[in-house]
Structure formats: structure tokens, C-alpha cells
Amino acid sequence: MAISVQNVCKRFGEFVALEDVGLDVPDGSLTALLGPSGSGKSTLLRVIAGLEKADSGEVFIGDIHATPLPAHRRDVGFVFQHYAAFKHMTVAKNIAFGLEIRKRPKAEVAERVHELIKLVQLEGFGDRYPSQLSGGQRQRMALARALAVEPEVLLLDEPFGALDARVRTELRAWLRRLHDDMHVTTVFVTHDQEEAMEVADTVVVMNRGRIVQEGNPQDVYDHPADEFVMHFMGHVNVIGDAFVRPHDVEIRVEPNGTTSPAVVRRVLQLGAQVRVELTVESGETVAADLSRDEADGLPLKPGEPVFVRPRRERRFDEAETEVASA
Amino acid sequence: MIARLTLRFVALGYLSALLLVPVSIIVWHTFSGGLAPVWDAITSPEAVSALKLTLEIALIAVPINTAFGILAALMLVRSNMPGKALLSALIDLPFAVSPVVIGFTLILVYGQNGWFGEWFINNGYPIIFSVPGMVLATIFVSLPFVCREVVPVLREIGTEQEQAAATLGATPFQTFRRITLPAIRWGVVYGVVLTTARAIGEYGAVAVVSGKVIGQTQTLTLRVQQSYENFDHTAAYAAALELAVIALATLFLMNLLHPRKDG
Predict the structure, then answer these.
(1) DSSP B41-103
(2) Does A76 touch chain B if contact means CB atoms closer than 8 Å?
(3) Any long-range contacts for A208-213 (C-beta under 8 Å, 24+ apart)?
(4) Inter-chain touch B160–A80, beta carbons under 8 Å
């Protein structure tokens, strides 16, 4: 079901968490709310779920005017960063909770729990307590619990934030596959732009209680609306009033008329990539990301003089400039 | 190592001097004349009546204070109502005020010359110098325990589990029964044990409002004191032993209920 948020405002005392926020999430999409902490992304998610009451504004879930409904009548699945596992219940009981609240027949509950345990790959863990599970397993259990009641929308609040890097990567891919199989309208909150780019169809970037930009991940990355989004979507060099991504910095041995001289400061081997830190004429430090093959062809040692030029740069007082290749 | 042993020795020595030795002496003195006099002292009509009254008062006061304590704890921790600080201070009042003073205030309100006393007496339901007053006094003195035990547990468990239950469709009451109550149950049990101990052991407030009519408004604690004053030492020791046994039984019951390892 589609979600529509209209003119939502929310304050906590003096702090403005949401300022006139409007958002339309299409049915069956996977949307990331992306922003730094304090940007209002979690508050927006909680307003949609009914866990937080907006000071003003409306929330629609499908055709239902959800604004006056309490959380327990909204039919949303919600997954918390710290799992919110029911500690005194086994994994199976946790997953069955929503179904038991809805007084479904025992046999049906048992069957559905069995299915979900399989779906989230927790076979053999049904009788364990949450304290006996790893973080990743707890979060999968929480996801199964939210999915058990077949919610109209699934909301996830920094679902992988408390997990270590490897488990996080696994679960991201798994969430994407799950969404592709089930098509439940999904919104998740993250402060990690890589996670948002990797998982979501649509990225909604928030800052200081407002939505600054929304669109498909590649568009947002390539055409950031302002300096904030430019910075937030990845590492960026600021040279004068121009913004250049490290992978758009070209390093040459000889000058070609559009290049400027620079000196290599540091070379970092980052596995598949090589990051070179240089000082340009103006004294500013510039980072360049090269593939290993590119790097192998260049004399990259600290102190070496080289020549650099941006392949693509961006200024926010005018349109993006594509620098002609030489 | 030596420091730790010394610490242990001091702690155990302190506890023995203060607790174990007096309790052992009660047992010792109770049975110094053999079993028969003790049995007679326990089964005398006055003693049976005192035991019954003690249990009756506890059975009324403990459930009421448990329900109130949980409710008050929920209000203190989960709600945003104004005047929370005042409620919190009021709940601690019975700790701060001497039980004797509590007894006197009850007389001032419900006694013959008190605000409501005459009305109750005229309607054939006197409160002071009868059981209802003793129940009131007991409720008053044992009021804070459940609330004070539950508040920190409620704070510690946080609200996420409750919010998760709500998103899964549970009404506030279902959430309380299925999520909150199981999560705070050890705080509640501990509070109930303390409330029971205090309800059974209370002397001062109950003494003031009871009138101490033997066979009618005499509880076990009052019986200990009155028998002792009347030089009926066997009866005093027997009643004291009953109190000790009830206390131990309560503790034992709590340990019996202790949780499976699912914390």
C-alpha cells in the first residue's frame, strides 16, 4: 500500500524534529530515508507507524486516514535498531505474537511460524530465547515477527545499525531479495549512504527536519540538489567553489593544457582501489580514487610532482559542468 | 586475599550478631520447656485468632498495595502527567513518617471525634479499634514497597518492547499483560515479599488503632508484646516463632518461583 505524509510538523520542546514534511511512497517500493542523526528521519518513520504523534499534518496508509489511529490499529510492521525482542519469549513465541493477538487458530499460527522461521533461516532456533541469539539472528527474528501478520507496510528504523560490517552486508542483500519476493511497501531509515544506494529504489535525503532531495539513488548521487547532499552522498573534494568526487580526479604524468600541477602526499591501498592524496597549487588537499591498473601506470610516491584535472565538477551557483576529455 | 577474607568475616559476623543469634535464641527459648507447652500456646483460641487476623489483614493489604504499586510505578515512569514529583514524594511518605504517627492520623480522621468517624460508627461500621482500621494502617505502612521495586525495573526495560507489541496489533492492555507484566515480574515479586513481611510484622500503627482486644483485634505482633508484658513467655515466644516461620515461608516461596534462565 502506498504511504502519503502531508505537511507533518513535530517538535520535541524547542527542537524541531520535522518541519512541514511531505512524502509519497508508492505501493510496493523500497524507500530509504537517509540523513545524519538529528535530521528527523527516525521521527518521520515513527510518525508513520503511529509511535509518535505529529503536532500537525496527516498520514495516509493506502486509502486509510491513519492520523487519528493509534499504533496498534495501523497494520504496519516495524523493526527497531536494537531488535526490541520480547526477552521472556522464545523465538517461535516472538514470531507468533501478532498472530496470537489476532486470535488466529493454533494450527495456522504454528504453520505460519514454521514458514517464517524457514524464511529468515532460523531453523532449529525456535525454542531458544533471544539472549541465546547473535545480533544478526535477533534482527532476523524481529523481521519475521513483523512480517508474520502480513502488514501493509514494513518500516525499519536503522535495522542494521547495531550489527558488524559483514553481517550488515549480508542482511542488506537479504532484505533486497526479500522485498523483491514479497513486494510489501518498505521504508527504512539509515545514515549510511552506501546502504541506501545498495538497497533502495528511492532515496529520500533529510536534513534538519526537512526533505532536501528525493529520487533514485544514482540520480541523487550524480545530481545532488545542494552542498549538503553532495557531501552526504560520498567523499568530495572542495577546490575553490567547485566540488569534485575523488573518482572524477584524473592524474597524469605530463601536463595537457587543462591540468594543473600537484604533489603526491600519501598513497593508500584500499583493496580494489587506490586512494591518492595530493596537494594542489592553491595548497588545498585533493583525494583521487584510481583503479589499481591506473595507479600502476603512474609514479605515485610521496613527494612526486604530477598533474591533475577534474573529469567532472559541480558548482552550486550554476549547472554541472562536464569537462571535455583531452 | 586476606583483605577479602577479612571482609567476608566482618560481613558474616555482623549478620550473625544482628540476625542469626537473636532468631536462634527465639527458637531456643520457645522449645526450652519441651514441645507440649508450645503446641498448647499455638493452638489456644486466642493464638489461633491472632494468626487468622494477621493473615486476613495481609491478604487484604498485599493485593491492594500490589495493584496500586504497579499502577503508580506505571504512572511515574511511563506517563507525562504533571505532578509526578508530588506523587513520588507522597508514595515515600509512609517511609518517612513514624508508624505511630500514622496510627494517630487514622484516629484523627476515622476515630469517634474524627472527620468521618461518627458517620462510620453510626452506620454500624466502626473503623478505629476494629479490623478495618488495622487494615488501613497496614496498607498505609506497606504502601511504597511494590512501587519502589517496580520503578527501576520499568526504567531498565525501556519502551521498545512495548512499542513493538503495539505495532504488532496489541492494545495497551494486551501489551501490559503480555509484555510489561512478565518483564517486571521479579520487581513485583520482590515488592510483594517486602510488602507481606511488613504487613505481617507491623506493630506501631496497628497497635495504635487496634484497641488490642484479645481474640478480636490482636495480631501476632501485638500478641508477642502483650504476652511478654503479662509474663506469659511461652506464648510470646510461640507467636514470635510463628512470625518467623511465615517470613521464612514467604522467602522460600519466592525462591521456588524463581525464574528459568531466560533473562
Answers:
(1) HHHSHHHHHHHHHHHHHHHHHHHHHHHHHHHHHHHHHH---TTHHHHHHHHHHHHHS-HHHHH
(2) yes
(3) A208/A16, A208/A19, A208/A38, A208/A39, A208/A40, A209/A10, A209/A16, A209/A17, A209/A18, A209/A19, A209/A21, A209/A39, A209/A40, A210/A19, A210/A20, A210/A21, A210/A40, A211/A21, A211/A22, A211/A23
(4) yes
Give A252's contacts (C-beta < 8 A, 6+ positions apart).
A259, A306, A307, A308, A309
Using CA atoms, how far apart are residues B252 and B77, in angstroms rounded to an integer?
30
Mean pLDDT of A49-71: 94
Quick: pLDDT tens for B146-179.
999 999 999 999 999 999 999 999 999 999 999 9
Residue B172: closest C-alpha in chain A:
A72
A125-141 confidence digits (pLDDT tens): 999 999 999 999 999 99
Q: List the single residue in A51, A88, A101 with the smallest CB-CB distance to B169.
A: A101
ipTM at complex level: 0.86
Contact B167, A71 (CB under 8 A): yes
DSSP H or E segment with residue B104: helix B99-110
Of A71, A86, A146, the CB nearest to B161: A86
DSSP assignment, residue A192? -
Q: Is B262 on the interface with A (CB under 8 A)?
A: yes
First to last CA, chain A: 50
How does DSSP classify residue B170? -
Residues of B in contact with A76 (CB under 8 A): 167
* Residue A325: DSSP 8-state: P
pTM here is 0.83
Selection from A83, B153, A104, B196 nearest residue A113 by Cα: A104
- Rounded to the nearest 10°, the torsion over CA B25, B29, B34, B35 is -70
By the 8 A CB rule, do B146 and B74 touch?
no
State the DSSP H helix or E strand holding residue B223, giving kind and residue range, or none if neither.
helix B220-229
Contact status, residue A94 vs residue A130, Cβ threshold 8 Å? yes
pLDDT beneath 70, residues of chain B: 258-263
Q: Which residues contact B150 (CB under 8 A, 6 or more apart)?
A: B69, B70, B73, B184, B187, B188, B191
Q: Is the pLDDT of residue A36 over 60?
A: yes
- Partners of residue B170 in chain A, C-beta under 8 Å: 72, 97, 101
> 3-state DSSP call for residue A57?
strand
User: Within an 8 Å CB–CB cutoff, is residue B230 touching chain A?
Assistant: no
Chain A residues touching B153 at Cβ < 8 A: none
Is the CA virtual torsion B36, B41, B43, B44 positive or negative?
Answer: positive
Supply the DSSP symbol for A322.
E
Residue A236 amino acid letter: V
Strand A76-79 with A153-157, pairing? parallel
Q: Which of A24, A22, A20 is nearest to A1 (CA)?
A: A24
Query: Could you say which residues from 107 to 166 on chain A have a Cβ atom under 8 Å away from some Cβ of chain B?
Result: 129, 131, 142, 145-146, 149
- The amino acid at B239: A
How far A56 CA sits from the closest chain B CA (Å)? Answer: 20
